[in-house]
Amino acid sequence: MPIALPPLLEARELRKRFPNGVAAVDGVSFRIPHGRCFGLLGPNGAGKTTTVEMLEGIVTPSGGTVLYQGEPLGPRFREEAGIMFQSTALQDFMTAREALEMFGSFYPRRLPVAELATRCALGEFLDREARRLSGGQRQRLLLAIALVNDPAVLFLDEPTTGLDPQARHNFWHLVRDIKAAGRTIILTTHYMDEAYQLCDEVAIMDHGRIIAQDTPQALLAAHFDEVILQLPRADLPDEIELPWPRLRHDGIVEILTRDLDGCLQTLLHQGVKLARLRIRERTLEDLFLQLTGKELRQ
Amino acid sequence: MRTPSRRRIYAVFKARNREFLRDRSSLAWNILFPVLIVIAFAVIFRGEGAVEQYKVGLYPLAAERQPATPFLATRGLDAIPQDDLNAALRKVEHHQLDLLLDLEGRRYWVNDSSPKGYLLERVLWGTAGHGFAKQTVSGRAVRYVDWVVPGVLATNMMFSCLFGVGYVIVRYRKNGMLRRLKATPLSAFEFLVAQVASRLWLILGITVLVFLGTNAFVHFTLHGRYLDLLLVFTLGAISLISLGLVIAARTASEELAGGLLNLASWPMMLLSGVWFSLEGTHPWVQKLAQLLPLTHVVEAARAVMLDGAGLAEIALRLVVLALMALLFLLLGALGFRWE
Description:
heterodimer; A: 31% helix; B: alpha/beta; five-stranded mixed beta sheet
């Protein structure tokens, strides 16, 4: 009979109350199995950073526990976890190779610099000083530092914030490779497409609690069965009455409907021009807005 | 607590050294600045004896308890009580006192090669007659630059230790470097040991370079042993680095750290006897000065360099420095927070 392994990482009733009385995290529990990519999403102030920092052992919880392979966080976790914070300064005058060597020497088990350089595509700037690296190169180096101990669990906190689209896609590619190698990843992000692309499971946080948690596909299926029709506001004046809810933002009107055929006929009947009509499916971004009432990047 | 790992300490030590040595402009400044200061002093105070006042040592009684004499009322004359005859005589030898006077015993000492002593002797005869027994000592004048060199070396060391550790740790804390290190198996103890070791190694290297560099131009006096001087600077550096650790233990803002570091360094700069002797200053200033590590570094270094003092003579200063280092290290390490 196979022995049931404890989840790689488990949060039990995590709470964090700051000295000013604010409860940043208010009873959060989840289990992250081996080899999964778990995404934590939430608007600013939702408590996701504090939650992740408690998982990382950087912040001490006011209540509840974090278990790593069934045990409280200890030296073993430090040796087997890799962390990429949102913003970490590197020592300006150290080369990428030296930074990897320094961080590597902290761990009993470490990957050779050459392998890290290949995995994270550091080849071209391995011997360049940190102060001369571009944004994308820095992020790749920080990822390589997080991988220096060949971690069983990898934390990525907003890893692609501030990167241009191409650098983001390159970064996703690296993360997918890490996933394919069977590593467990905990990702926080502002980018819903990033969560959708990379995560096997997402938890959405607001006001210190988890308000929804599942695979991205299951969450969308459970919350939305309508599609969205987008039109420029100029093409759909407010006077035109429709039986479906309408959202207005940035010069665009969005109509939410379960009856696509009926909606299109009504619009034609009302004389609305459909030349600039776009139909889109609901995304995690919409779900987020619906659940929290906030835009993600607020 | 886990056993500290030498490998981890060495990795941080090496990284910090590289960071410092590769920042060429800052490194050049660290070496050049004290050399320039010493050369400037050597040029400005080329003459013998920089202080224009006439200094008369009074032994064994304090001035107010000395029998009144019109000699002491002479303008431009600074009467300084001396409680140790040997120390006072050494000052006469080095031209730090122009004349030593014992009113009770009706005798005085002058240096036979001191022009100021010669003048004061004439004034004494003119105002108090010839009833005092003359005793002569001899010795080469200590130039102001010889006197000021230990202070300049020590001050440079102080700034480097305080800012190089205090400011750097606060910068690491502010830019997230400490938080990143906290997320590794590196312990706070290992990190701090590496910082202290790196700065100690660097500042001793710099101090030796500055010493040799300035000596090549100025050829200053060294009567004592090099090893003793090295010991003074080593203990002094450890105590000043540790003081930097105390300031950096929790501070998260570079501005606050800058203020605190200035608060620590400026009183030392002014009150540790770096630029002028504290002799003759208000007693509380002298008491306060004894609380500052730099005072002990400067005094001990000066004793070794100018008076040829050995370990026995500076033992008390060394013990005080070691105790201060221990106290600051404990405070700095126990108070340290990664964030």
